[in-house]
Amino acid sequence: MMNRIARILGAIALLISVSSCIEHEVIPPPVNTVDLNCSFSGYVQGTQVEFTQNVNGYKGYTGLDEYIAPSPLPSRRVYMSEITSPSDMRAIRVKFGSLNWDAAANTEPTLTMFNDFHTASAVNNQIFSNQGLSGLEVTYTDMNSAIWTSKQNNPMPQTLAFSNIKQQSDNTGDYSMFDCTFSCYVYRTNPLTSTVDSLYVQNGKYSGWFKK
Asked: pTM, whole model, 2 decimals?
């Protein structure tokens, strides 16, 4: 009788030992990821140009310029989006601003401010602006690494429109996706002649994102 009880207790102990060694699968929660895609297509001086994310090394990037002023003067943010490649010197960048806010009340613009600012870009008439301080600035880098930049108050005809504004967030931050279509002249000072040269960017369509 005692041997039988001992065998039963031994079997129970073995069962407990084996079950305790079984690792339970831990299923991580789903990760919310924003699909960030960037592209540009258009004609530069009559030649078709196209950059697409993940093609020929091209990738989209974002950033911002921030100008903090003491209250009650408004602080400003100018947002930047660009598509570049390490294997091709040609690139394009757009800068757009300014989002104004009181830095004494908020250390940075709130998500509501960010959304309202970019949503309004598709509704209000937009202009070209140097450094993107009060509108859009387009910068084009050619195959020789020369940098060409748009100008405000240009006497030459220029067009500009924003569309498809969409705000999304994930674990990496808050984003405003957009499409921007434009035709404009971009300029540079020729280092050999000191004259101002120009290129015409026609029917350009830039799709990208700004990050809060």
From this structure: 0.83
